[in-house]
Amino acid sequence: MLHLWNWLLPPLFGWRLITFWQAVGILALCRILFGGFGGRGCHRSNWRRRMDDRWEHMTPEERENFRQGMRGRCGFGAPAAEAKP
Questions:
Q1: Which of 15, 18, 38, 35 shows the shortest CA–CA distance to 26?
Q2: How far is Cα 4 from Cα 26, in angstroms, rounded to an integer?
């Protein structure tokens, strides 16, 4: 992280170089804020497993409604009616 910071950020934003211990501190702070200290991976896989189970129990109409809702919320992809020529 130290080398990436020192290579990328000072030329782009004019920020100063950091030391090894500052890089360790930034890494620790990022892990605390965004996860990654071990046990969190289990929660993600449990979430994925629950979502897969829900998906398998949905009817084709429920799946399409879910897809449409995600397209509307996340703003990606064209709605199914517009995607078909």
A1: 18
A2: 12
Which DSSP string corresponds to 10-77? HHHH-PPP--HHHHHHHHHHHHHHH--SSTHHHHHHHHHHHHHHHHHHS-HHHHHHHHHHHHHHH--S
pTM of this structure: 0.37
Cα maximum dimension of the chain: 57
Residue 26 makes CB contacts below 8 A (sequence gap 6+) with: 1, 5, 18
Residue 48 has what pLDDT? 81
48 close to 22: Cβ distance less than 8 angstroms: no
Angstrom distances, CA of residue 43 to CA of 40, 46, 49, 70: 5, 5, 10, 22
What are the tens digits of pLDDT across the range 38-52? Answer: 554 555 568 788 888
